[in-house]
Fold each of these.
Amino acid sequence: LAKTTQPISMDSYEGQEVNITCSHNNIATNDYITWYQQFPSQGPRFIIQGYKTKVTNEVASLFIPADRKSSTLSLPRVSLSDTAVYYCLVGDAAMNRDDKIIFGKGTRLHILP
Amino acid sequence: KAGVTQTPRYLIKTRGQQVTLSCSPISGHRSVSWYQQTPGQGLQFLFEYFSETQRNKGNFPGRFSGRQFSNSRSEMNVSTLELGDSALYLCASTLGGGRDRYTEAFFGQGTRLTVV
């Protein structure tokens, strides 16, 4: 699995747009980029997944440049309830791959009023 | 559809005892993974089961074991408990079986184990 690097923590204010960048220099051709969100004492929750360019859903956007060596999770107009740990994962999407999912340290996002 | 169910939610055990935790995956999901989460080490992968077979294993001692039943429900067992085993144990279910994309994992609420 490609190694990922993301900031340990970030602070932002309610109503702001928050961008969390993840570096994955060794990403492989078959790798997808997936982000999870975790609140205290709960299991992680899938946010968004992408392969290239831009993906948007009702929760977030994911921007992936052409070289795919990094990606940016964008959370529009955050609220206090977006305070959580955000994990960036890079994994193989080939057929018959197994489902071993390894989490890094994540980014602890703290939203201030 | 029902989510991933873990039982029990909370557990207090004494050093040296053993414990069994249970995980019922989402209906139709065939892969179950287990994770240990502690403040110092974060989310650490324990093992993954698919079709009743352990397919992947993390770097944990043999005291940690698991199994999966024919209905995809999984149990993990920790023997000879140590104080350091106190953690939130999470299980995740995925469709499994090799899909054409990196599969989305659905996590349970976890079991909070305290060893005293």
Note: The radius of gyration of chain B is 14 Å.
Amino acid sequence: DAGVIQSPRHEVTEMGQEVTLRCKPISGHNSLFWYRQTMMRGLELLIYFNNNVPIDDSGMPEDRFSAKMPNASFSTLKIQPSEPRDSAVYFCASSSHLQGSGNTIYFGEGSWLTVV
Amino acid sequence: AQSVTQLDSQVPVFEEAPVELRCNYSSSVSVYLFWYVQYPNQGLQLLLKYLSGSTLVKGINGFEAEFNKSQTSFHLRKPSVHISDTAEYFCAVSKIQGAQKLVFGQGTRLTINP
């Protein structure tokens, strides 16, 4: 079975440019998560969706960040304009959400973003 | 809110030696507990999880963890490590009721020396 698929795997962009990260969750999963990993702050939850609806975006750092999930099989995380401090690894993850079931959350391989 | 503290940022051990990676959590509600492993330049992979029942949980690659409710701990152990266990290990919790999102500790880098 295909896991969570993220693209691009690596991106280097100049400050001020728009960055779009893409994610395809595991088929049949109805929860999707975007995490960011940095040396300083570790793993932070940015936003998560249940059934394509954003449930909690309190982790989104500022208005430059936005996330969408137009359908059950696709999500994007956009940064506009990008800044050097946005350099990080961005992980997408998905799970089959049944409240109280403790279902496993599966992670993609990450998108490694460098903003210069 | 939940929080997770991994007491050691780095743990060096010799190959075939036992290892314990420590994890303590804080939560006002009941939680599920997880350990994930991250190999270099890869995503996170689930090692094991505690949902209920026996407090000793066995996972992949010979790892196990013990849930201790009174000490709010969930330490990860392996009796004999291999070079291939070199990775970053993350402890995480999620609420049983409500949002399923994971809250992670800062990670412990396990380095295996030959």
Note: Chain A has a mean pLDDT of 92.
